[in-house]
Design goal:
Largest sheet: 4 strands, antiparallel
Number of domains: 2
Shape: globular
Helix content: 55-70%
Strand content: 5-15%
Radius of gyration: 19 Å
């Protein structure tokens, strides 16, 4: 989709703030790429509205639909973290967690591959702990942690869940058995 966005829509301050939000350098190519992805999500949302395709009526349904489109057209190959959602929607972490959980539940079949890709990326990034049958992994989203633990419970109910490492915020440990089951399922 070719979308031309006029640069005069964004003041220098707007552009700087958006580059921070997008976590990109403030250059024309990166900025244009991010704005095109956001625009694609917005156009699909407006198309649905104009064609009367299942219009949401409540504010939380509108947010859910908007986040769905951002996941599909902006985040592309992954589920965003609660922190990213908080930045985009100006919500608290708890509100973002609830919003993401609602979107994953309501649109589970549409997002199934993106959820699986996010879990796969997370598990594949785990590092084996030397001289131990366990792995350490960074998980930046409580929703992803819940999904992984739910999957462990389904695949191998006797495996312990993934747990937070003491005195850390995003570092977790999982048993070697849990890692093996998750890697086999997600990479298979």
């Amino acid at each position: 989709m070719n979308i031309k966005i006029e640069s005069k829509l964004f003041s220098d301050e707007d552009r700087t703030r958006l580059c921070t939000l997008f976590n990109i350098n403030n250059n024309d190519a990166d900025f244009t790429k991010e704005i095109e992805k956001i625009s694609h999500a917005a156009i699909v949302e407006y198309k649905e509205m104009l064609l009367g395709n299942g219009l949401p009526t409540r504010a939380d349904e509108i947010r859910q639909r908007r986040l769905l489109h951002l996941i599909k057209y902006y985040f592309l190959d992954r589920i965003p973290t609660e922190t990213e959602i908080s930045s985009m929607f100006q919500l608290t972490e708890a509100e973002s967690r609830t919003l993401l959980k609602s979107v994953k539940t309501r649109f589970r079949y549409e997002l199934m591959q993106k959820i699986k890709d996010t879990l796969k990326h997370t598990v594949n990034s785990a590092q084996k702990v030397q001289n131990a049958n366990k792995y350490r992994v960074i998980i930046k989203s409580n929703n992803i942690l819940e999904e992984l633990n739910r999957l462990i419970g389904q695949l191998e109910p006797l495996c312990p869940p993934i747990t937070r490492q003491k005195d850390t915020s995003q570092n977790f440990e999982m048993s070697g058995d849990a890692y093996d089951k998750l890697a086999e399922y997600l990479n298979g």
